[in-house]
Design goal:
Elements: H1 17-27, E1 31-32, E2 34-39, E3 45-50, E4 53-57, E5 62-67, H2 76-84, E6 86-90, H3 97-103, H4 113-116, E7 121-122, E8 131-132, E9 137-148, E10 155-166, H5 179-182, E11 185-187, E12 193-195
Antiparallel strand pairs: 1-11, 2-3, 2-6, 4-5, 5-10, 6-9, 7-8, 9-10, 11-12
Length: 209
């Protein structure tokens, strides 16, 4: 038996918003980064990263990206998704992490972050939104639903994956992407990020009979 470690129990009501955010985002780690490209109804491209992100189902594969407001103003990403009902979600790795950080800048509305970060946009295959040419992987999604998170400025976008793009070097013989080749970058607390560490296999126990 493991010896119990000392525990501090913290009521969220005793913390201000900043302290609670710092605590919880340091515990829900590492978080995958959705590097999301969208396009407005006027044809203006946008690119921004979000770390409140994950897959929520298979067959069909549905992704969730939670998008907060910025100074009580709806972000371009959410507005574009609402208008054109699509988004392209890219994997962030070592090769593009610096460019991803540039696209996190609080640019004025209408800025083309592809140009700001020196990235090349290529057309989507099944959606209107462009994708990042040099990203190791991209999942093109069609919007299923926008769900406001009660009591917050966040809205969850649920997108069904309709096309997947993966660099050939990342694909293994099983058809799955190799984590070592993909080299994803994850988000930690504050300004901290993490690269892929040790990879190990753990088979799930099966009951007999």
């Amino acid at each position: 038996m493991l010896e119990p470690e000392p525990i501090r129990s913290i009521n969220p009501d005793t913390l201000d918003g900043g302290a609670l955010y710092r605590l919880c985002t340091s515990l829900v780690v590492p978080r995958p980064i959705a590097w999301v490209s969208t396009i407005s109804s006027e044809g203006q491209a946008n690119l921004a990263p979000f770390s409140f992100f994950n897959a929520v189902s298979d067959q069909p594969v549905v992704l969730m990206v939670s998008i907060g407001a910025r100074r009580d103003r709806e972000k371009d990403t959410l507005r574009n998704i609402r208008q054109t009902r699509c988004l392209a979600v890219h994997v962030v790795n070592d090769r593009v992490v610096e460019q991803m950080n540039i696209t996190a800048t609080d640019y004025p509305p209408g800025t083309n972050e592809f140009e700001a970060a020196g990235l090349t946009a290529v057309p989507g295959s099944r959606i209107e939104a462009p994708r990042v040419r040099d990203a190791a992987a991209c999942l093109e999604c069609e919007l299923l639903e926008l769900i406001p998170v009660p009591g917050t400025t966040f809205t969850m976008a649920l997108g069904q994956v309709v096309m997947v793009h993966v660099q050939e070097r990342c694909l293994g013989p099983s058809g799955a992407a190799s984590a070592e080749a993909l080299r994803p970058v994850g988000k930690l607390a504050l300004n901290d990020y993490t690269r892929l560490g040790e990879v190990f296999e753990l088979l799930r126990p099966r009951l007999l009979g």
